[in-house]
Amino acid sequence: MKMCVFSGTFNPIHNGHLYMAEYVLEKFGFSKILFIPAFKPPFKENFPELTQHRFNIVKLAIEDNPRFEISDIEYRLGGKSYTYRTICELYKEYRIDGKINFIIGTDAFETLDKWYESEKLRKLVEFIVFVRKNDFDIKKYDEMKEKGYCFKFAQMQFNDISSTEIRKKIYDNLPLKGLLPEKAERYIKENGLYKN
Predict the structure, then answer these.
(1) Interval 2-58: pLDDT, tens
(2) Is 104 helix (H, G, I), strand (E, B) or coil?
(3) Which residue from 54, 91, 131, 172 has the least number of CB within 10 angstroms?
């Protein structure tokens, strides 16, 4: 199986995430995209009351695409959700052709050296990097190649949707105008999430 992983806090998952995953399926020919909601993100503020909700929202958002799948691997592993630990576990659970590919934005990619066991991680995955800013300079990433990171850039147009912006709109009772999948938006409303 040629696998690509899309891991994140997904707080909440939004249409920008889904566009990225669909783009990767089309352009790189993977069997599936495996969405992995973080159980306890190591670099972000954690709201335990949202942990199960985030998982449920991802599940609803992707259920109509047979090539999207959700994994509870980080929920089963417990503790802080370190990508290295998750990737090692995926190699045990799946028969994978080649390296696992990993979707990431330029903002996170630039901080990879600070990640847990980053030197070991870079030997296990190939990164598919999405540009998250308008002043993108590809030459800046030569240093990452020199350090041994394996990566390619997705050529999808920069789409400035953020979960932070969506949470603020929900809190302020502003219209979401198609930022979220319909089922995800309904779940958030029914459960009164992001209101405090």
Answers:
(1) 899 999 999 999 999 999 999 999 999 898 999 999 999 887 766 789 999 999 999
(2) strand
(3) 172
User: Residue 93 has which token pair?
Assistant: 């659970």
Task: Strands of 51-183 (E only): list them.
Answer: 68-70, 100-105, 125-130, 151-153
Per-residue pLDDT tens digits for 113-172: 999 999 999 999 999 999 876 666 777 788 889 889 999 999 887 777 899 999 999 999
Nearest to 58 by CA among 4, 9, 11, 13: 13
In CATH terms, 3-160 corresponds, of 3.40.50.620, 3.30.930.10, 1.10.10.10, 3.30.1850.10, to 3.40.50.620
Q: Give the global pTM.
A: 0.93
Q: Which residue has the tokens 């958030």?
A: 188
In whole angstroms, give the CA distance from residue 123 to residue 136: 25
β-sheet with 125-130: strand ranges across:
68-70, 32-37, 3-8, 100-105, 125-130, 151-153
Distance, CA of 161 to CA of 10 (rounded, Å): 12
pLDDT tens by residue, 21-34: 999 999 998 989 99
Single-letter amino acid, residue 61: A
φ and ψ of 36, to 5 deg: -125, 95
